[in-house]
Structure formats: structure tokens, C-alpha cells
Amino acid sequence: MEDVLLLVSEAVANACLHAGGPSELVLSHGAEGLLIEVSDRSPDRPVLRPRGDPALPGGHGLMVLERLSRSWGWRPGATGKTVWLEVPPPWPPPPHGDGGHDEADEGG
Q1: What is the rounded (10 degree) CA torsion for 48, 61, 71, 23?
Q2: Nearest-CA neighbor of 20 among 64, 108, 80?
Q3: Which pTM value belongs to this model?
Q4: Cα(37)–Cα(69) distance, rounded to whole angstroms?
Q5: Is the confidence at residue 22, as pLDDT, over 90?
């Protein structure tokens, strides 16, 4: 969960810093995992900076996306672009039944 929060934060922060802010944030989930999409009004492609000193602030956002997501990319839109990230489901997946019980199991 913390990785997802960090990924969303980095993608939104990049839109704020480099594109005037996000215009839309969409989270979609399915059996394959979570899809995060952050749209902004800039047509400029995201640029992965050369690796510098990791101890220095700034310039690490896309590297974080690259390392924590299964895949990421961007696509142009009518009024800007959308940066997307795919996050796999947590592994191992939870069992079909969670092993717990509810009131119906107790007969009342």
C-alpha cells in the first residue's frame, strides 16, 4: 500500500512541478493489478534524468516510478498527456475466503 501511495504522490508531484498541475487522476483495478493515470495539460514527454547523487533532493520522481511500478509510460492526449503506471496485485494473493467468519457462521 505504501508503494502505491508513493507512486501516486510522485506522479502528481511531477505534474505539479513540470506541467502546471494535474487535470485528472484515475485509479482502476482488476485482476492484473492497479492502473494509475495522471493527466496534465502539457504535451511535453516525461524525461528521465541521468542518475545523479541519490542523496541530493530532486530529480528522482521518474526513477521511483521506474523502480516501484511493473511498468509505466505516457501517451499524448487532446489537451496534454497522461502518465500511466501499472502496479501488480499484492503477492501472494489473499485466499478466496479470508478464513474469518461472520454472524451467519455463528447461527445468528
Answers
A1: -100
A2: 80
A3: 0.76
A4: 12
A5: yes
